[in-house]
Amino acid sequence: MTFVLGLTGGIATGKTTVSEIFKEKGIPVVDADIGARVVVEPGTDGLKDIQEHFGEEVLRPDGSLDRKALGTIVFADSQQRETLNLLLGKHIRRWIREQKTHYLLTNPPLIILDIPLLFESNYSTEVDQVMVVALSEKTQLTRLMERDTLTRETAEQRIAAQLPIAEKIKRADVVIDNNGTRQETKKQVMEWLDHFFEETAALN
């Protein structure tokens, strides 16, 4: 029986760092960010849906999606952001389920569903437990500004577009504290993995 762990967090809280640790250990990871790019590639229904709603201004000259232009629109307007999530939600969910099914065929003990908007998009029913990668609001803001070279106002806008990290912590089964170094974060993930495999072995 494969155990499905949902992995989520807030923007710039370090979810990708934790996802990479799982990959390093050979754990299959379904990355929703990859799916979100795949479903809007030229010629896809996802890109067509975006073009029909947002217009040509969100396309590059070669017909591909201009993510920066789209981001400027949706992060400044919650209604437009909600519309985008509705337009792409079904395409991304289908992609995630296809990837999950693909990995399940090999019957691994553990699969990670790495989904930034796991709670916001109601993926809780797709997983057995949820792991949230968290850090303080101050550190989150600082890391986001540095990572994406954003002004404080823009960074705060993007953080506010997601469910507050404090709320995600309340809903989590497991919380990884990413306020420290990568090694400290990795230690927590490895402790969870060791415990998981010990429990799995005891059941078999």
**Would you tell me the structural class of the helices and strands?**
alpha/beta
Number of domains: 2
CATH architecture of the largest domain: 3-Layer(aba) Sandwich
User: Main beta sheet, described?
Assistant: 5 strands, parallel
Catalytic activity: 3'-dephospho-CoA + ATP = ADP + CoA + H(+)
Protein name: Dephospho-CoA kinase
Binding site for ATP: 12-17
Family: Belongs to the CoaE family.
Q: Could you please describe the fold and organization of this structure?
A:
There is one protein chain. With 204 residues, this protein is an alpha/beta fold. The protein folds into 2 domains: 1-28 and 110-204, P-loop containing nucleotide triphosphate hydrolases (Rossmann fold, 3-Layer(aba) Sandwich); 32-105, no CATH class. It has 9 helices and 5 strands; from the N terminus they run E-H-E-H-H-H-H-E-E-H-H-H-E-H. The protein has helices spanning 15-24, 32-38, 45-54, 67-74, 78-104, 137-148, 152-160, 165-171, 182-203, and strands at 3-9, 29-31, 110-114, 129-134, 174-177. It has a 5-stranded parallel sheet, with helices on both faces.
Main attributes?
alpha/beta; globular; 204 residues; 55% helix; single chain; Rossmann fold; 2 domains
